[in-house]
Amino acid sequence: MGVIKASTERVSLSMKKFALPPRSKIAKLPRKAMADETRLISEGAALDEFLDDLQREHQVKEIAGWDTAFANLNRALDGIRPGLYLLVGPPACGKTSFAKQLLDQVAMRNDAVGIFFSFAESKNELRIKTLARLSGIENREIRRGSAYLLHWYGVPRLRGNETEQLSPSWERVRRAAEDARSWLDSIFLLECGAGTTAAALEAHVRETRATMNKQKIIAVIDDCQRLGASDQPLQERLPLLVEQLQSLAENMNAALLAVWPDLRDNGDIAPQTWAERALGTDVIMVMEADPERTKKLTEPNQALTLNIVKNRGGERGKLAFDFLPAFSRFVEAAAR
Questions:
Q1: Cα separation of 15 and 256, whole Å?
Q2: Which residues are paired to 310 by β-bridges?
Q3: Per CATH, is 4-26+70-130+182-290+309-319 categorized as 3.40.50.300?
Q4: What is the pLDDT of residues 34-46, one digit of tens each?
Q5: What is the pTM (predicted TM-score) of this model?
Q6: Contacts of 123 by beta carbon, 8 Å cutoff, 6+ apart
Q7: Are strands 283-289 and 83-89 parallel, antiparallel or unpaired?
């Protein structure tokens, strides 16, 4: 299956819950899906059922997909829906922080399960990013107290008056983790190794869905260029990987966000060229620095443009973000 170290954000979840469903249940999944697809239903009957479903939906929706908590991104993408999303950007522009924040916000706003497959950063580093973003305490401060914090988001089981011994900043971190625990119970971190394959990812998505008993799934594959055969040149690897991940997203009816590094030396190449290099994707978002806006920000904050160069379900265009690396947080510039 490949080398993946699995972890869940929740404290009480035991490893028993990560057991794969019985082989008989796994075998039944494709047959059931096939039976549903081949059942003969006339459009007259199908439209009656569809209209009834619409009539039961009383909530007025501004977007068709899942809420990202980014207002401008919601409007551009019409929300997140099952399919393959590609996030491209140069090194050190905050791709991992953006992907983790997006995953967390979709899970929190939509009662969805979030799975973060990491090929580079450890689970503890990802936890620090989340804690910094939620608490407003800088990454480095949290990292200095890692011996105190890092076990299950660092929410210790304190006794008696021990809470009075915490500094105000640590108390903010602890409270932020406690406040987020309800949706963190639906977030899973998995460390991937050199032997990890797309089939291994699919197996983990299936077992997580079975464990959580939720249909909405969003998964991030960070540094996805490390997935699969590493002996191929990077430019040849992308189309093959896109084909595999698109198939996985379709088979699992899940939203997959694949994070890909832009390692080209020539920074003058237009972001639109990525739409031609990854034809099987549903959405392609390309990050690039905005030097002029960055001059107006306090260091080390960065101004970035998110170019939506391909979007099968909505608009193409540009969105302005500010990246606050000390807190691993992205903010839509227009919303500030």
A1: 25
A2: 284
A3: yes
A4: 444 557 777 777 7
A5: 0.79
A6: 5, 7, 189, 191
A7: parallel
